[in-house]
Amino acid sequence: MDINTRLIRAREEMAKRNLDAFIVLTSDPHGSEYTADHWKFREYLSGFNGSAGTLLVMQQYVGLWTDSRYYIQAEKQLRGTPIELFREGQPGVPDYVSYITYILPSGSRVGVDGRTISQVEYQRISEILDKYNIRLEIHHVDFIDNVFYQRPPMPTDELTEVNPIVACTTRREKIDIVRKMMNEKKVSHYIISALDDIAWLINLRGSDVEYNPVFYAYMVISPEEEHLYIDPHKLSRVVSNRLAEDGIKMSLYDHFINNLRNLPKESTVYYDPTKVSALAVAQLPNSVVRVEGRSLVGEIKSHKTEAEIANIRSVHIRDGVAMVQLLNWIEKEVASGNRITELDIAEKQRLLRMAQPRSMCESFAPIVAVDANAALVHYSPSIETNTALTSDSILLIDSGGHYADGTTDITRTIALGEISAEFKRAYTYVLKSHIALASAVFPKGAYGIQLDAVARQPMWKAGLNFGHGTGHGVGYCLNVHETPYGIRSSFTDSRFDEGILVSDEPGVYIEGKFGIRIENLIFSQPMPETPFGKFIKFETITLCPIDTRPIDVDLLTEEERLWLNDYHKTVYARLAPKLNGDDLDWLQNATREI
Amino acid sequence: MDINTRLIRAREEMAKRNLDAFIVLTSDPHGSEYTADHWKFREYLSGFNGSAGTLLVMQQYVGLWTDSRYYIQAEKQLRGTPIELFREGQPGVPDYVSYITYILPSGSRVGVDGRTISQVEYQRISEILDKYNIRLEIHHVDFIDNVFYQRPPMPTDELTEVNPIVACTTRREKIDIVRKMMNEKKVSHYIISALDDIAWLINLRGSDVEYNPVFYAYMVISPEEEHLYIDPHKLSRVVSNRLAEDGIKMSLYDHFINNLRNLPKESTVYYDPTKVSALAVAQLPNSVVRVEGRSLVGEIKSHKTEAEIANIRSVHIRDGVAMVQLLNWIEKEVASGNRITELDIAEKQRLLRMAQPRSMCESFAPIVAVDANAALVHYSPSIETNTALTSDSILLIDSGGHYADGTTDITRTIALGEISAEFKRAYTYVLKSHIALASAVFPKGAYGIQLDAVARQPMWKAGLNFGHGTGHGVGYCLNVHETPYGIRSSFTDSRFDEGILVSDEPGVYIEGKFGIRIENLIFSQPMPETPFGKFIKFETITLCPIDTRPIDVDLLTEEERLWLNDYHKTVYARLAPKLNGDDLDWLQNATREI
């Protein structure tokens, strides 16, 4: 069925409901970054399969909004369809909500699937459209089903229990911590819908979506019980019994929405409006008190325990070993004149990681990008774009793995041959910014935007900058992008604390030439308290040499040079015992003092 | 009449109106930092005359909320009254709005003078109280008049016109710029109530409040006219004629509120809800479209023109000369064994500034603080606290002047005798933070909170910090604290641009020992554009040596040392031609390379 036919069916459904427009978002009912195929309705209806984008269907007109990462891909995939591409962020391009207000007259009705829109986004858009007397309506269930021909079913794969030694804390202990927070907030009920929150809380892992070891489920914690809404096919008898033993009540996934309607009238219900769907919130009886706030589980889980961080440190030795083996292999291949491509390197890396104890899978689609390909920040090699290394290439590798006892995310940029002055300067400033964050000290409670500025200051002084965040939270054998902690140039209300694992990944991208990014994971640690309060610093967790060949040592301060030498000393000390042969020689050479 | 009697009268007025509580704020109807005596009702009712504080009067109970700057003063001034002191910011101390929700039952009625509360604050408090079914009502005119015995009248002092050469831009030109912005925002009317906005826009200056050369007035710009609401006694015939020639319509100050009710029904009215009173907004006909946003005049006036900044640079030569004369005088007096006190120094400084061409008055109450006095951030010397210098004192001087062609604000900390290791370390880190901001580079559009983090990073690394902002906007022969630009640890939505004049004033305060602050004014300037966008740096405007004796040079980076030497070279070059005798010798010595 071609895109035109699919759009016709969508318009028929719209006409039945008297809708002048329908908004098709990218997420699932849990606010996930990666979704199961069942929820890929925007892709079905437009043919565009980027990870971000919004389709706006009207009777005479369709538009797709996406950001700069996907301009080229969207152009290509929309060719031959009636869908117009709106390049978000380009000057003069309205966002889709403004566009609706420009094009639809007062009194119009706009639909959206209430499951795929978070409560906070629903409120934001409704408020804007209200001003123009345009109504935003939640339409669900039948709409997508009626249009989505041969819609893939929800995944039914079985879950695995996290090994108790790895979990560090039992599900009962975790639930008790959550209940304590609920008591402090004086709420009777707590709706949990973020998939990684649920996986972490009840120590289960799944494979319902790519890269994130999570599974589709909801939880509601009430005064009497913890209620898990899940497809029972996902639970083996053993797991099901264990959950029951731990006092967890189980119901069908599909009963979640209906059961919300039956919450006791005098309940006080807590939920995170960025994670819970507008449809779920709309089910709550009018009489219940709604308390919106950040995910309580998210708050607890982003603070890694001593036991968790000990495992994470150990994972990074294994991951570092695989990285050293990879980087040594690449250099040997290039030196031998063998032709290797981006895809070869990605596959080699996957195999090296898989050979490490307790490794499970990749934590995201790896970026292996040669020269100009690396200037596209979210490039992933494909058969069409696959490029071979040359002896003068600059290579950027951004990859990570899930291990049973932790998740990794690392980027290295290496120069294989002669180094241009332009690359050298940019590389050195990326390193300076990386070190600025890694060695930052800040008061407990500092905002991510403050740390972001500290990281970027060296680069700004050289007139350089980059268009992505400097750091994101990282899960514990869970999502490689974990909310709420982040280090970005935009303000968010999460205040840094000790025990937070984030990435440190400044970059510089020169279109048509190269891309540079240096990424380690860093972990926030308390410093001795002073009369001026509690201060926090970072410990670098990732263990892998940073290429020193492209560094312009004259541009480094003495402190920066010492930081790098110190880091390399640690890398050598931790990895050397696990390496031998020419891998060990390579490590020794790569960690030499500068 | 004692405080008890005053409170009884206030309670009688509350009873007449069936109010369970009355909130007495500190501001005037224009959101001013300094107010005329006419508006000092909180001081009248409580006896507490600090610049910040809120009084909550109930039938059985009165509380005063103020911040750490005023704990000691408030304790003293409230002694013998029935008023309880609430120390804002202390753990466990509720703010006054929460306190109302704790103590008053559902259905209660709370009053506030609608002129002394901004629209944004009124909305914030109403929303909180609404949740507890407590009503916030705007009570005005009679309430304060009936209670405030011998209330001082509104000031009637005559205004002066700003010299056209100093003004740089005529009032008609300024109004045309505002009208252009109004057109872009598609608004028909614009209400201006911030006093410095009006003074700047129509090139007049007054003396209605201390330190800020402003006057009480409102303006409304409508499609047909610019309407100035002002007491006609303030306008000489000449000024009145000039305004009329420029097409400005004048009405009585007191007619402003009534005239708002008569705005055309289909108007679109723009106002800054942080500057316009809730009473004013409440007058607007229901049918008009309200557009809230930041002051348009504030936006224009905070961007200093080339001509303005040229004048400001010239003012800083004169101010620097007065500073050098002062610092030399202090050292000579101490060396001669003469007893000089904080008040002596403040008076000497005032006289030296007044002796400079085009000087007008001080731009705020000067802080001259010896040793432990300087640890109180907002200390001002008084007869009771006045302290004499000793040959080992540390002295902090924070002062500024209004000149016909610009406003200054400078802080220097000087060590007169032996220097302790503790002071030396803290002083050097304050200097490092000062330099970090002065030499910062950042993309156009960066937030103040980002610059604040860049400034504090060196200090944080040493476990030091301070509890005030790092920088505030400074007016052009106007308020020394000018909104909206600021450099603070809290997020505000003003994005830095070129042409902004702010202070750079990090500090460190050790209770019972000393206080350190180093403050210059800095001016944001564009850098050559790079492929990564537009970047901005600062030019230091203030010209006065920074005491080098307490610097631990080993703690400075090479860049920091060079910055300081470079700054002192500039200071010498600009000030030396205006100095002679031992002042010149002192300057030469004070600006020697380190």
Brief summary of the model shown:
Two copies of one chain form a homodimer. By secondary structure, chain A is of the alpha+beta class.
Structure description:
The structure is a homodimer of 594-residue chains. Chain A is α+β, with helices and mostly antiparallel strands and 594 residues long. Helix content of chain A is 36%, strand content 20%. Chain A is built from 19 helices and 28 strands. Chain A has a 6-stranded mixed beta sheet, with helices on both faces. Chain A has a 6-stranded mixed beta sheet with strand order 12-11-10-8-13-14. The longest helix of chain A has 30 residues. Chain A is globular and about 70 Å long. The model of chain A has no long low-confidence stretch (mean pLDDT 95). Chains A and B meet through strand 21 and helix 17 of A and strand 21 and helix 17 of B.
> What proportion of the residues of chain A is helical, as a percent range?
25-40%
Q: What is the typical, i.e. mean, pLDDT of chain A? A: 95
Relative strand content of chain A: 15-25%
Distance between the termini of chain A: 61 Å
* Rg of chain A computed from alpha carbons, rounded to a whole number of angstroms: 25 Å
Q: Oligomerization state of this entry?
A: homodimer
Q: What is the spatial order of strands in the main beta sheet of chain A? A: 4-3-2-1-5-6
Uncertain spans of chain A, ≥5 residues at pLDDT below 50? Answer: none
Biggest interface: chains and residue counts?
A-B, 32 and 31 residues
Tertiary shape of chain A: globular
